[in-house]
Amino acid sequence: FNLAYARMLSEIALGIDIKIISSKIENSATTVGFDLGAQYAKLMEEKLMLGFAVQNLGGSLKYETENTKLPILIKLGTGYKVKENWVAGLDIAFPEDNSPYFGLGTDYTHKISDDISLAGRAGYTTRTRRVEGLNGITIGIGFGFKMANLDYAWMPMGDLGTTHRISVGVKF
């Protein structure tokens, strides 16, 4: 479960995300973590965006005999507006517990009416490069309605199988 809040401060967008994380392998553990981010989008006639995020601040997962700190993840990213409704992006991630990796992706949004939009998305990451089989790609679709959005993504994970992600967002 995540709850996020963002606000413009001068010309920089700042955001915070509070999340509840639950893990169960043999035993279960739950904790609360925080993510912080900032974005500046006033470069090259507002076509180029730069971002920075720190994820997994805070809690640790306490199992019966073991206490595991959440691994901090630092991300640097850039996005470029190819057209008003088409964005391409590149991220570099520095996980505390693993090797750095990069991801690139694109998002194209078609406005159907004033209240409804349809988005197509595609991406690639090197995060799963050590996994055998088809992996690293993501293909998704999103629907926007006035104050809400519904998104779906398909992610093959090689020998581990396929992941399907569904998210719902509400803006207020």
By secondary-structure content and strand pairing, the structural class works out as mainly beta
Rg from alpha-carbon coordinates: 18 Å
Shape descriptor reads globular
Distance between the termini: 18 Å
Low-confidence stretches: none
**Sequence of secondary-structure elements:** EEEEEEEEEEEEE
Mean pLDDT: 93
Largest β-sheet summary: 11 strands, antiparallel
What does this structure look like?
The protein contains no helices and 13 strands. By secondary structure, the chain is mainly β. An eleven-stranded antiparallel β-sheet has the order 1-2-3-4-7-8-9-10-11-12-13, with no helix packed on it. Strands 5-6 form a two-stranded antiparallel sheet.
Task: Give the gist of this structure.
With 172 residues, this protein is mostly beta strands.
Helix-strand blueprint:
Layout: E1 2-9, E2 12-24, E3 28-43, E4 48-58, E5 60-62, E6 67-69, E7 73-83, E8 86-95, E9 101-111, E10 116-125, E11 137-145, E12 148-156, E13 162-170
Antiparallel strand pairs: 1-2, 2-3, 3-4, 4-7, 5-6, 7-8, 8-9, 9-10, 10-11, 11-12, 12-13
